[in-house]
peptidoglycan glycosyltransferase (Leptospira interrogans serovar Copenhageni str. LT2050), 661 residues
Amino acid sequence: MNIKELPPEADGKPNKLIRSFVSTEDNNFYSHWGLDLRGILRAFMVNILAGRIKEGASTITQQVARLRFLNTERSFLRKAREAWLALLLEVVFDKDTLMEIYLNEIPLGHGTIGVGAAARFYFRKDVKDLTWGESALLASLTTRPTEFSPLVNPNSSSAKVRVVFKKFVENGILDVKTAEKEYESFSEYYITLNRSPNDSAFGDRLNRFPYFTEYVRKNLTRYIPKSTLYSGGLKIYSTLNIQHQTQAEKALYAGLKAQTALSNQRTFTKIDAFDDAYGEIYDLLSMLNDIPDFKFKISRSARTFNRAWQEDLRDELSALNLLSGTESLGETIDWNYKSQQTEDFLLPVEGALISMRPDTGYITAVVGGSGFRSDNQQIRAFQAYRQPGSAFKPIIYAAAMEYFNEHPDPKKNVTAASLFSDSPLQYVLEDGDEWNPSNYTGEYSGFIKLREALELSRNSVAVRVLEHTGISNLMPYLEKILQIENRPIPKNYSISLGTFEVSPYELARAYAVIASGGKQVFPLSVLYVEDGSGKVIKDFREEANKQEKKQILSPAVCFILTSMMEDVIKKGTGTGAASYGLSRPAAGKTGTTNNFRDAWFAGYSSELVSVVWLGYDTGTLSMGKGMSGGVVAAPIWGRFMSNALSREKSKPFHFGETGVV
């Protein structure tokens, strides 16, 4: 706020808001030179007698010094520093500038900093439109703002405002009659006030990209004290790309809305089977034995509603029928529900999308779910650990190729042209159970090249690659690619089919290794942080630059895998990624878990890596038959990549001299 926005009153005197703070905090502000000696002497005697800091006599200038340069410690040394800085400030700045700094930086409760934010929070007004009562309330909040908050303690607040009005009279700002009139008029504010004591200015602030900012906030609390982070006037420079974030939200939200509607129309297959086999018999038994009717083919939302309706509402509405003389309230509600069913009843399909630059690791977009709300703040891009399904196969193949690259044993050779048997498998586990991994389609092709096996997402081939190279041989490479230190990767063949749970962020980081030509990637969400004076207090770029980017995979392996995953999009399970006009070179892989519980698409262009995941938060629920990664996630990924990169020049993949022809 510029102090010029507070015009003088009609009588030519300073604005009422300025006079309210001067009267309450520092009545001699315009005449002293930074310190109020009489006030200091009075407070000094009180504090000496008490043996501690009990009373303050800080002028507005001293408060500016404290806000800008000091902490809130109550000690004699801090008060001495405050006084010295106040004298210097009076030399450097004029009174209007000091008042402007003070009014802009004074905390006034509920997360508000400055009178502009406070006026909007408490009164939904601009500062220039405040009344005497509203100005008095803001001036009453300079000390113990929680105790005197009108939202928390309206009685205490009203009493404190009355004290401020008494000061108005004592200091000659208002006469008694005008003060009483203004106070009585303002008292209606407390009568009409209907807000939660837990309201805060944080909820009022426009947050265009809440998932990204919430992740940044949580991340920064590991490095910066919360008190400084929330009220230190910091400037945080992030890696967010507005174009990417906007398109990520559009693509994912549209996809989740459509998938929620589609998945909630589907019924459980067991109920379908029961209805088909026993439905007519059940109807007959119902008629003969007076068993209530039951509708088997019904959506989850309808089943939830009907259960609540039968258990909780039917008796009450029957009583209303008698009282109102209406016999059709129940039928009306039944009809209204069936004809006007809203999304509020739908169990939402959730999801996540994350993107990062493969060369720098800069995270450019984060969407953590179907919408950031008080009841939906999980950032699933980082916090949802799910099985990636076939999206894990490129990581298995990368590890197998790199192992052969470093251990050139002809018996362990794995290339895009390597032939593997695409045929049924059977394993007997240690506990005696059998494990029979099968292809998604149930079809087999005999001997098939690895490139084609990835295009068609053949599960049998992925298992055979792992068996061919050896689990123990691959483990060190898998650990390097994934860069996961706190969770061990199971040593069993099922990991080749993506049973090891990862977050979208972890999968994106692994794919970024391939996209970067095999170099280690250190993702960043914040570049640097400045304090209120513009000094850099934390530079994450410097720390990232000090870290050695190890060569995890050879450029040749990355070149081969990228070529294979380009074919996945061109003619394999990922053709849905091109449905939104994606025209630049791109590589990726679909992922689907058992019973269609999770749908993934992970991929990259030379400019950007991104991962999309969809599924229910309850991991046991299916999105419905056929809801695979290629059908559900790939179109969202393609839409995002096409639109997010629309302003960036298309570049071919380049991995340097690979030696691959």
